[in-house]
Amino acid sequence: MILVHGGAGTVAPDRHDRLRAGVRAAAAAGHAILAAGGYALDAVVASVRILEDDPEFNAGTGSALTRDGSVETEACVMDGTTHRIGAVAAVPDLANPIAVALAVLEAGEHVILAGPAALRFAAELGISPAPQGALITDRMRDRLAEAAAHEATASAPVDRSGGTVGAVARDRHGNLAAATSTGGIVYKRSGRVGDSPIPGAGTWADRTAAISATGDGEAILRVALSRGVAARVAAGMPLREAAIASLRELHEITGGSAGLIALDGSSRVFVQLSPTMPVAWVDASGGGDSIGDLIS
Ligand code: ASP
Hints:
This protein is α+β, with helices and mostly antiparallel strands. It contains eight helices and twelve strands. Helices cover 34% and strands 23% of the residues. α6 packs across α8 (239-254). The two termini are 27 Å apart. The model has no long low-confidence stretch (mean pLDDT 96).
């Protein structure tokens, strides 16, 4: 079973079909690994890579821009059975940060590598940053200009999140895994680290549940959203109730908005507080996609 999201936020209806097609392709790539008897960890990485390469999503190519107009990428992958984690945070210009996060996990020495210095580890893997500007799309240039104009004029606030990608999977051996990748939020300060690469905030997997979250990163960090879902499930709450309770708690405490996808041993859930969150899933009995399940 694999479930993929393409970010919680506000998306114009004319982009919905493209986003749904993107998450469907990503879910299919992850499912192909699971169907061949592969591991959940490899499946979530394969799904996320597809969306990092798709310029419609805010990860890898198409990342949100810092207020300097640069790209700083973030990703995390976690194996629920072993609690092994690899993450990269605020690393410039990685086209596939999830590949470097996986290498951090596999190396086993550290959990998170952050900032430009992490490019030295990437270089050891033979991974170079993309040429300056290569990951930047016109859509993200426009969103940066919009956010900068808002700062200058204090006009109506603009949505700075959206388009982050993530996947959760359960393989036939019973392992759970989660992965998330993002360019972060539009107009972020250089060096800002969001929730996506932080275990227990944007990404979490243990033997009970696997979660990838998206939305207002500072709010997600302040409540450790994904770990909160897993803790509720471990305490006996059904997965959907745990997800909804955790999102409501986030909103009550921070006033922020978020969404998440999650799997446990038998069920799956996708829910969000913001208008749209493209999702797709595939399991043995087929698959589907949706623009999300808005809860109040
Ligand atoms: N959560 C991401 C961040 O704050 C943004 C998003 O999910 O769209 O970096």
